[in-house]
Write a structure and sequence with these properties.
The structure is a homodimer.
Chain A lengths: L4 H6 L9 H9 L9 E3 L6 E4 L3 E10 L11 H17 L4 E11 L6 H18 L2 E9 L4 E9 L15 E4 L5 H10 L7 H8 L5 H7 L5 E6 L4 H8 L5 E4 L8 H9 L4 H6 L7 E5 L1 H10 L4 E7 L4 E3 L2 E2 L2 E4 L3 E4 L1
Helix pairs in contact in A: 3-4, 5-6, 5-9
Chain lengths: ~325, ~325
């Protein structure tokens, strides 16, 4: 999965795309252009799609050098992750993804069939699994490879939002945190062999679609979001203004590889995990009376604290700082 | 309108955005976050929007160095044109734009209030004029400034598509062609003073929304699209497979500035106009019995030829070649 993508395309000059039409015909072999929800598919100025009375809609940028490093990401992983992180946004509000548009910026050295065969297959796996269609998009050459996806979905019976927590709620997450960050560091330091699950979490993150389906059926869950910038940053986005959070995360609850990486870097493992972005686990809050059934229904669900009325954010008794900001970069607490 | 954008932001270091939250709060002052069609606005993982049973949807990339040159484009023009070209896609299928999502890649030197005040105002003018809302999006820093917009709209009573022409149809365009290309050349050669309408067509193109409203009511119009890559390329996309087109464009029908620029470059004015991209006029075909009323209803509408059964594409008796392709660049016939 790890390799120099550029070299793949350089190896066979004959297998480059000669025109936009040729590229789009190749794309058509991966993504059907008609379907029960697609009245007019790709090829006109717009697509015409059937929609429910309300749709959830979200966009995510997936840019080389910022959101992924080409030295580690195979074309397959770029395709997979660019769509996966968008699906994550839909399920975190209790919805089901239906379709997406894609703005694709490719670089001259990527414009070959080998690259796009893998790239499209990375997306197609998710499309087939979750019955999602590609409605349309745009293509351009650029200096950096970039995939911008706008995804839409059908809302569930209840819409879940951020900042709907209630004082006394238990705060939960659906999977390990800090694992993607450990994977990125392992890849950048060439020690990925010791961190296989971290590397997978970074390159092809698991999206908790099944877990979301269980969570949204639990009437005691009050608020929900996906964790993309680290829980230390995202907890401020989850909790209702005026409220606070007391998180308790014993080291033993962290993933072994996260503990190992934090020790290697001489960092506090809990802080390491809390500021690590791109985990794409769900984080939410649930009334105390619902948390036991929720834990039974959702394997791997971990209770990490509770919502308070104090406006303070504490982790194991210390004030929480840090997380990722596109304007400020990574800040360490 | 023309100036070095970078300098604007360098002039006042204090006026930079400190965080993503700060940037988004600034954005909120331009684009309302609630509305009759927006149930949940920006600030959650998705927005929740009300939709008709079917929507038209389209995406366009607007990338520095490819779709616009920062030496000529003011922040206002970048904002205006990035949204305008998307509105063009909706109206060319007979629809009305409703809302959009925006993926915004900004560069460090643009991340100041002066820049985004102008940029957002360029969009806001169109939003207010056509009652379009900004539902959501994503932000990242990048090496090149880029705006990717996904727009959706309400289809009209009839959906207009490409490749629905009938033999004998008259082919029409709604406005001057080649003007945007003349503007780009004038700007790049520093002679914009002599080409004011060309420059305006390139930087802040007129979008024929009113013209589209008239066209879609004419029952004789068979096919319609917007011209983004030049009519010499787009005519192949407009005409039904197996059919052809005979275009007759006398030089006197071209815009004065287009003729002047072609003469300056010692190019055939008709070829110059035909391969010029980004005009965002509408091109379509109409049964002969409807063309006279169409010309009366749509001021500026120009009949440029007719659909044939021969599979050949001719301009003033010569075979048509050329146009813009992202894989091949500009090709001159």
């Amino acid at each position: 999965m790890v390799g120099d993508i550029g070299l793949m395309c350089m190896s066979n000059k004959l297998d480059r795309f000669g025109s936009e039409e040729e590229f789009l015909k190749f794309l058509d072999t991966f993504f059907p252009n008609k379907g029960k929800r697609v009245v007019i598919g790709r090829g006109d100025d717009c697509s015409l799609i059937k929609t429910p009375g309300k749709i959830l809609i979200s966009s995510d940028i997936f840019l080389e050098g910022v959101h992924f490093d080409k030295r580690y990401f195979s074309p397959y992983a770029i395709g997979y992750k660019s769509l996966a992180v968008n699906i994550s946004d839909i399920i975190s509000m209790g919805g089901r993804a239906l379709g997406f548009n894609m703005c694709l910026m490719l670089t001259k050295r990527d414009s070959c069939r080998e690259f796009f065969n893998d790239f499209f297959n990375g997306m197609k796996g998710l499309c087939d699994k979750y019955d999602i269609y590609l409605a349309g998009g745009d293509i351009s050459f650029a200096q950096k490879f970039c995939v911008d996806i706008t995804i839409w979905g059908e809302p569930g019976k209840r819409i879940f939002q951020r900042k709907r927590s209630k004082v006394g709620d238990k705060i939960f997450i659906t999977g390990p945190i800090g694992l993607s960050r450990a994977g990125l560091i392992a890849l950048s330091q060439g020690i990925q062999g010791n961190f296989p699950e971290s590397v997978e979490a970074h390159l092809t993150p698991y999206i908790p679609v099944k877990e979301a389906e269980k969570i949204v059926k639990n009437p005691y869950v009050n608020t929900l979001m996906d964790v993309s910038d680290g829980i230390f940053k995202d907890i401020y986005r989850l909790i209702r203004p005026g409220q606070g959070a007391e998180l308790e995360i014993p080291i033993k609850e962290l993933h072994n590889e996260v503990i190992e990486m934090a020790c290697l870097l001489k960092e506090d493992p809990v802080v390491f995990a809390g500021i690590g972005g791109e985990d794409y686990v769900l984080m939410g809050s649930c009334r105390e009376e619902g948390i036991y059934s929720l834990k039974e229904e959702v394997p791997g669900l971990l209770v990490i604290g509770r919502v308070t009325d104090k406006g303070k954010f504490l982790i194991n008794g210390q004030q929480i700082k840090g997380g990722f900001d596109h304007f400020g970069g990574m800040t360490n607490g």
